[in-house]
Design brief:
The protein is of the alpha/beta class. About 25% of the residues lie in helices and about 25% in strands. It is built from eleven helices and 15 strands. Helix 1 (about 5-15) crosses helix 11 (about 335-345) and helix 6 packs antiparallel against helix 7 (about 210-220).
Length: about 375
């Protein structure tokens, strides 16, 4: 198995097109064609993690956070980022980062938090916009069903709990092949009229390359007329954060004790208690201050996240309980999620969970 094949599997869980624009995801170091000897999964790629990969004979590190975030202007080992990259290159170790692509996955970081806390009926807190596209093309009526099936097989036509969704209208297309053409229908120099179907099918933007490949491979015409539009429809399976429910309400104090136990948290920074039971819970792993308003809009009783600043606690406004449990603490189980996914997909292959502790924050 080569690096690219492992990446293709990882993108089934977290397609890179769903990563945020500011992020740096994907293969950061290494060659996609390298034969993989083993995979080491980590939250952060530090020097000690690369050392661990060397010791375990793993030449692919799958990291949640990207070791290279902003541009590298020099590579001389002056800081920890450069030292990691140099050591990885020296030992022919590839580094792949998932970060916000996994944050936005409905099976990703926040789904794992919901699972750890036992939340039921989880849904996306902040659906990502612009993730649904529509293909419009024109095909001879006799070829409509075959082309639709090819597009369905490529991942088009899925809407919520429904598959094989499309819409077709009938009409007459016209074209006149010139002397350089090789027409499937009609003759050179003669205007041809063909009964055609205008075919409309939606698809997730992560599948665009597959959809276009299927279109060109299965459309009978030499020249394929098509349009792609980005729709305003909300995709409920892609986005930041999640909201779920406790099976039984808990008091604020009891729920905080529950969080500490389940999330291995030593302390919780929080806004003022509201004196009401906790039932509806919003979560967002990592820095989540931007989602406070969204959490309040769902009427959640509590919002669990990290990296809240002093004045941001005022935004609770007596409507929600804000709980900052720590950046590492909200994301610590992410590497377990990745290992479990890869292990199910690649049986009998060396996939290791990093034993290195990468939390840079200590508590006294």
């Amino acid at each position: 198995m080569i690096v690219k094949e492992v990446i293709d599997i990882l993108e089934e869980l977290a397609p890179l097109p769903y990563a945020e624009d500011f992020d740096n995801v994907g293969l950061l170091v290494g060659d996609k064609q390298t034969e993989v000897t083993g995979v080491l999964v980590t939250l952060d790629t530090l020097e000690k993690v690369v050392d661990e990969a060397i010791l375990k004979k793993c030449n692919l590190i799958v990291s949640f956070h990207p070791i290279i975030f902003s541009g590298l202007k020099k590579l001389n080992g002056a800081n920890y980022v450069e030292r990691v990259v140099i050591k990885a290159i020296r030992h022919n170790i590839a580094i792949y980062s998932m970060h916000t692509a996994l944050d936005n996955s409905h099976r990703g970081v926040n789904a794992k938090i919901c699972d750890i806390l036992g939340l039921s009926n989880p849904s996306i807190l902040m659906p990502q916009k612009g993730t649904i596209k529509k293909l419009t093309t024109y095909v001879p009526k006799s070829n409509e069903n075959a082309l639709k099936q090819a597009l369905f097989d490529a991942g088009a036509g899925n809407i919520g709990n429904y598959s094989h969704c499309s819409f077709a209208t009938q009409g007459v297309g016209s074209f006149k092949p010139n002397s350089d053409a090789n027409p499937v229908k009609g003759e050179i120099g003669t205007t041809h009229y063909e009964e055609e179907s205008q075919l409309n099918i939606t698809f997730p933007k992560a599948n665009e390359a597959k959809i276009l490949k299927a279109l060109f491979n299965h459309h009978p015409y030499e020249e394929v007329a098509y349009e792609i539009q980005t729709l305003e429809n909300i995709n409920q399976n892609i986005g930041m954060g999640m909201v779920g429910y406790l099976d039984k309400p808990m008091s604020e104090a009891d729920f905080f004790a529950f969080i500490k136990k389940k999330m291995n948290v030593s302390c919780i920074r929080h806004s003022e208690f509201l004196g009401k039971d906790i039932r509806k819970v919003a979560v967002l792993g990592g820095s989540g201050s931007f989602a406070i308003s969204a959490a309040k809009a769902t009427n959640a009783d509590i919002f669990i996240t990290a990296d809240l600043k002093y004045h941001q606690f005022y935004e609770a406004e007596g409507k929600i309980l804000l709980a900052d449990i720590g950046h590492y603490e909200t994301e610590q189980f992410t590497k377990n999620l990745i290992v479990d996914f890869l292990t199910k997909k690649i049986a009998n292959f060396a996939i290791s969970l990093s034993e290195s502790k990468t939390n840079p924050i200590k508590y006294f």
